[in-house]
């Protein structure tokens, strides 16, 4: 497994803390949703950055009051066939305005990178090293997008209308 | 016809190169079969009994003659010289080699055809009325909206890994030829009091193991809001649809378990949070898509030309015309259905020669346009009435003038156990035997409109639940047996058929169908009381008695 962040293979500074282990007072950690919900104040009492691993069957609305204090929201793909975290990611980015690191975890494979980026993910725990190495080449595969999402890509429909507008302006 | 522009072409070429890379990684072993399976399914590639099967989308059933020629080329170059038109406006090739698939896709991409999302747990080919744009009385051409939905659903970043497959169908006519009530989302185009276009939205229809007729979730969604409303439905489904059991994963089960009111409320709440988003279609956006559709320039031609009057003396022509030729919105023109159901043939199959032949005839007689319907027949949508006799003679040479459209031998059938790895029983030989029993045109004509649908397993690709007579093959103690239903229909009055009794053995199916038909002929109140109406009036009982009295 390798972490890809900002398009590059990166060192993961976040340590995963098991549910039965003590949460260190400093340093960057990732804790489970269950652990977090027991004591949401942990975000303000720790000195280091805290991220949370949020399961794909729990409403992300529960996270909204805490978003500006979260360093990472890690969403989960138990298998790549389970697409619930795509909806969670878009809601976090587009509806709730989350701007921190949004991490894809679980079975994260090359052929999902484009979808994940478009849904708002910014970091990827990539299962296979080959896939991680191919990240940049893979995400350049597509230059045309039919749907508007929060990633700001201009859709095909809007490109056409812009083109039409500029054509009629020059006539 | 919708014409691809540079953006559409770029996107499908990018998809082809992505798939080429995926196939390469599979062949090198870098991808496991489990990982590759979903990727190939998202591109219409199934592993069947004998080989890979390749399903190509024909969005909303519209093809240009050049596109049809290219399908013929794929059949010839990469397959065994024929293709199979399905009940969802797709075509399937049954003998394709994995290593050659990227080339076949590249050849298709050159004419603007793709196989994206023709299988897998995502939004499938958007289907519509095969008479869209030409049917008299149609409110407006539903293909504009079909194309908007095609683009919206293609490679959707949020909805490419849904709990299960998801199918859209759209109609804009009172008579529903698109079977919208048995789709995950059915859309009926209508106008509001201000004359603005919108849709009655139905949700949760579907066949398969647990059939449901779709329910109206919202009586009117403005066209401007179509995509945002659809996105709200898909988002609710993506989050709450069941993923623990493949047989309970379709949206119809979620709608059934929550109830339509509760489901509608969830969707409404979601929609209100995002209805004013970038998904809103203004008139200019709709016009942009509309402008990419081209329409024939019709001549002002007589509704009853001399050629037609003369040909009316030929009983063979008349037999064909009565079943195959339908009224067109222009009085001098007609819509012609081409039967892919020859007596003794496999329903929906067409050879490469037939496809090329139809493409040439489309150029000559139908402004280069061909349609594909869910009944597994083709149509030429703009034929001048004066050309009908010449067209008929030309079609006959290709074996495409069987005068049985909508008759008992116009059977809808899935490929069944002859090809499909999911099937429990054969479908094609059952269809072939039934067509032989009713090969006499006068008999078939006397019986009148009667749709038989055959599925080789519970997945119901042959839509047996909505056949006037439905035949479902199942396996029992290692033997193929068939459950027979009657009284189903797929149109605006869609209903699921009722079982007439215990399943029957393979060799008995055609006899049972003959018994049902004989019972109908004896029971019908008048010669023009259709089978459906007799079943509705009398129920299943007299048919059950007839079939099982001596069995």
Number of domains of chain A: 2
Query: Which second-level CATH architecture of the largest domain in chain B applies?
Result: 2-Layer Sandwich
Determine the strand fraction of chain B and express it as a percent band: 15-25%
Count the DSSP helices of chain A: 7
Tell me which oligomeric state these chains represent.
heterodimer
Number of domains of chain B: 4
Mean pLDDT score of chain A: 94
Could you say which overall geometry of chain B the principal axes of the C-alpha atoms support? Answer: globular
Q: What is the fold-level CATH name, i.e. the topology of the largest domain in chain A?
A: TIM Barrel
Summed over residues and divided by their number, the pLDDT of chain B gives a mean of: 96
Structural class of chain B: alpha+beta
Encode the helix/strand succession of chain A as letters. Answer: EEEEHHEEHEHEHHH
Distance separating the two termini of chain A: 56 Å
CATH topology of the largest domain in chain B: Sulfite Reductase Hemoprotein, domain 1
State the name of the first-level CATH class of the largest domain in chain B. Answer: Alpha Beta
Output the CATH homologous superfamily of the largest domain in chain B. Answer: Sulfite Reductase Hemoprotein, domain 1
Low-confidence stretches of chain A: none
CATH class of the largest domain in chain A: Alpha Beta
Tally of DSSP helical segments of chain B = 18
Strand percent estimate of chain A: 15-25%
Q: Determine the most extensive contact between two protein chains.
A: A-B, 34 and 38 residues
Q: What labels would you give this structure?
A:
heterodimer; A: 171 residues; alpha/beta; TIM Barrel; 8-stranded mixed β-sheet; 7 helices; B: 551 residues; alpha+beta; Alpha-Beta Plaits; Sulfite Reductase Hemoprotein, domain 1; Sulfite Reductase Hemoprotein, domain 2; 4 domains; 6-stranded mixed β-sheet; 5-stranded antiparallel β-sheet; 18 helices; globular
């Amino acid at each position: 497994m390798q972490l890809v962040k900002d398009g590059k293979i990166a060192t993961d500074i976040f340590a995963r803390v098991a549910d039965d282990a003590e949460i260190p007072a400093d340093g960057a950690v990732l804790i489970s949703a269950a652990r977090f919900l027991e004591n949401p104040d942990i975000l303000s009492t720790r000195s280091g950055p805290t991220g949370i691993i949020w399961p794909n069957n729990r409403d992300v609305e529960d996270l909204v009051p805490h978003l500006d204090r979260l360093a990472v929201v890690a969403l989960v793909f138990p298998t790549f066939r389970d697409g619930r975290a795509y909806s969670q990611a878009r809601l976090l980015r587009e509806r709730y305005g989350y701007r921190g690191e949004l991490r894809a975890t679980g079975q994260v494979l090359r052929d999902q990178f484009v979808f994940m980026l478009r849904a708002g993910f910014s970091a990827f725990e990539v299962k296979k090293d080959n896939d991680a190495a191919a990240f940049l080449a893979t995400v350049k595969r597509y230059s045309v997008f039919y749907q508007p999402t929060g990633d700001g890509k201009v859709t095909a429909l809007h490109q056409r209308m812009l083109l039409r507008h500029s054509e009629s302006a020059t006539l | 016809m919708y014409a691809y522009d540079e953006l559409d072409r770029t996107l499908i070429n990018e998809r082809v190169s992505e798939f080429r890379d995926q196939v390469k990684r599979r062949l090198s072993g870098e991808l496991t079969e489990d990982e590759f399976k979903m990727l190939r399914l998202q591109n219409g590639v199934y592993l069947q009994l004998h080989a890979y099967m390749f399903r190509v989308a024909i969005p909303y059933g519209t093809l240009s003659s050049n596109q049809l020629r290219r399908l013929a080329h794929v059949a010839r170059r990469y397959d065994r010289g024929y293709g199979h038109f399905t009940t969802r406006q797709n075509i399937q090739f049954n003998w394709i080699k994995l290593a050659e698939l990227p080339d076949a896709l590249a050849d298709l991409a050159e004419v603007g055809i793709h196989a994206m999302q023709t299988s897998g747990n995502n939004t499938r080919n958007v289907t519509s009325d095969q008479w869209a744009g030409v049917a008299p009385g149609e409110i407006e051409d539903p293909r504009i909206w079909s194309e908007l939905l095609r683009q919206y659903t293609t490679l959707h970043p949020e909805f490419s890994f849904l709990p299960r497959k998801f199918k859209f169908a759209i109609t804009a006519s009172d008579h529903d030829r698109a079977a919208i009530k048995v789709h995950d989302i059915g859309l009926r185009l209508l106008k509001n009091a201000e004359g603005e276009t919108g849709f009655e939205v139905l949700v949760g229809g579907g066949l398969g193991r647990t059939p449901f007729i779709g329910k109206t979730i919202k009586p009117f969604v403005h066209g401007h809001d179509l995509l945002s409303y659809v996105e709200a439905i898909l988002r609710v489904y993506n989050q709450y649809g069941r993923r623990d059991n493949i047989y309970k994963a379709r949206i119809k089960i979620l709608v059934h378990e929550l109830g339509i009111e509760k489901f509608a409320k969830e969707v409404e709440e979601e929609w209100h949070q995002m209805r004013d988003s970038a998904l809103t279609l203004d008139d200019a956006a709709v016009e942009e898509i509309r402008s990419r559709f081209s329409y024939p320039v019709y001549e002002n031609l007589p509704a009853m030309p001399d050629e037609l009057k003369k040909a009316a003396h030929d009983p063979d022509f008349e037999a064909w015309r009565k079943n195959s030729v339908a009224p067109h919105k222009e009085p001098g023109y007609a819509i012609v259905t081409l039967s892919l159901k020859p007596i003794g043939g496999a329903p929906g199959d067409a050879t490469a020669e037939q496809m090329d032949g139809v493409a040439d005839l489309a150029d000559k007689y139908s402004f280069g346009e061909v349609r594909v319907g869910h009944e597994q027949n083709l149509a030429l949508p703009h034929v001048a009435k004066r050309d009908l006799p010449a067209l008929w003679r030309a079609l006959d040479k290709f074996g495409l003038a069987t005068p049985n459209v909508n008759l008992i031998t116009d059977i809808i059938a899935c490929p069944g156990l002859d090809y499909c790895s999911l099937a429990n029983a054969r479908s094609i030989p059952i269809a072939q035997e039934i067509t032989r029993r009713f090969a006499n045109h006068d008999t078939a004509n006397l019986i009148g409109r009667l749709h038989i649908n055959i599925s080789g397993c519970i997945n119901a690709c042959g839509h047996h639940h909505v056949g006037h007579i439905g035949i479902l093959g199942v396996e029992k103690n290692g033997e193929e047996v068939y459950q027979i239903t009657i009284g189903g229909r797929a149109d605006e009055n869609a209903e699921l058929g009722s079982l007439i009794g215990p399943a029957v053995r393979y060799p008995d199916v055609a006899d049972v169908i003959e018994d049902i038909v004989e019972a109908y002929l004896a029971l019908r109140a008048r010669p023009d009381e259709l089978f459906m109406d007799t079943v509705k009036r009398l129920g299943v009982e007299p048919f059950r008695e007839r079939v099982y009295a001596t069995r």
